[in-house]
Amino acid sequence: MTVFPALISAILAISGAFPGQEQPDPARARLLERLGQLPPPEQAELAQRVYRSVLQSAHPVAAAAARLEGDPALAALPVLEAEPARAFDADEYAPALGLRTRVLRPSEAAWKKAEKQYFGAGKVPEHGAHWSYDHGRNALLRPLPEQTPEQIVAALYAGRWPHPGRLQALAEAALDHDASMDAASDYFNHAYRDRSGRVYSGMRLYELWNSGKEIEISDVEAIAWLRTVAGDRSVSSPIPAKKHAAIYQRIAQSFQSVREYQTLRQALAARCADPQGALPLLFSGEERSIDQVWALADHDPAAVRALLQQFPGREAFLLEIARQLREPPCGAPELARRLAARADLEQAVAAAAAAALESEGLLGIGRR
């Protein structure tokens, strides 16, 4: 076997095997300088070649990532830009109110006041900064701006996946099997509006209902839920006061179903291609259990999707996983091996990236 000294040095540098090594990394600076000398189209093509090469590595988590990136059904999903102020049309759902819609931005005092009211010392989850999956529209939401070739190469060189959030979004899409949840999911993806007609950009109905606080519901959002989710056109605006509580309760129950459905799939997706992926709050402390799911499925998203179709609810799903763990179909030693392999993904990605960059001439003596 031929071993390239430059390749070994690059891998050691990435893994921190040189005692006391600090940034800046001369090898990293050199490879990015060489990349920058290429025409922009060639930079983009090279970055994608390196990414594809890393996906082909033998690591089981990389294999999961490769399945996601290579799935024709996922490749066919629409790719949209985030719309933080996407809201229901007041003229369509509550024309009698004559509401004058005004969009509030996060920089405005009224927006910040609402954030403090509903989230206390916490913050509204940021959307649009990374790739995500839109359950309602069955679409990928891409961030603006997207990563540059330099950022892609630098991430892989450091042992990280490029395109933050993309693999999790693809995994979430792969695990979304129930089309009957789409209408309700889409409803809660819309921006919140108060009864004065103010729309809070970036503050989704999902976050407001998830806050646990009592919230104002304008007639616009109430009628929108009745029509788009419940298929009920028996109520129009202005809604009689005596009907408010019943409608509020129906929307609350709808949210509980959406949250139950989404958080299980988000938790699984978060750890599919990232052993350090952060779980939704409802799954806090369940990292090992989620990792065990992927190990049992040999890191195959299709296998986990099939299991979710059979056991769609959180309780039933986790009970089935507990049953399988008592006598793992793959055998306890193999399960332990699969779990242990998850721990060294960063080193595997860095090593595969270094080999690809060496081949491309961006590391070592190079051809470029």
Q: Describe it for me?
A:
This protein has 368 residues and is mainly alpha-helical. The protein has one domain (63-360). Helix content is 54%, strand content 6%. It contains 18 helices and 6 strands. The protein has helices at residues 5-15, 26-36, 40-55, 60-70, 72-75, 90-93, 109-119, 149-157, 166-175, 182-188, 205-210, 219-228, 244-272, 287-296, 301-310, 314-326, 332-341, 345-360; strands at 79-81, 102-104, 132-134, 139-142, 191-193, 198-204. The strands form 2 sheets. A 3-stranded mixed sheet has the order 1-4-3. The chain has a 3-stranded mixed sheet with strand order 2-6-5. The longest helix is centred in the C-terminal third of the chain and has 29 residues, at 244-272. The two termini are 25 Å apart. 34% of the residues are buried. The model is unreliable at 1-22 (pLDDT under 50).
Shape: globular
Q: What can be said about the biggest beta sheet?
A: 3 strands, mixed
From the alpha carbons, calculate the radius of gyration and give it in angstroms: 24 Å
Oligomer classification: single chain
* Tally of individual domains: 1
Helix/strand class: mainly alpha
- DSSP, total strands: 6
Straight-line N-to-C gap? 25 Å
Low-pLDDT runs? 1-22
Order of helices and strands: HHHHHEHEHEEHHHEEHHHHHHHH
The overall average pLDDT, rounded, is: 92
Strands of the largest sheet, in order across it?
1-4-3
Strand content: 5-15%
Tally of separate helices: 18
Please give the share of residues in helix.
40-55%
What's this model, at a glance?
The chain has 368 residues and is mainly alpha-helical. The protein has helices at residues 5-15, 26-36, 40-55, 60-70, 72-75, 90-93, 109-119, 149-157, 166-175, 182-188, 205-210, 219-228, 244-272, 287-296, 301-310, 314-326, 332-341, 345-360, and strands at 79-81, 102-104, 132-134, 139-142, 191-193, 198-204.
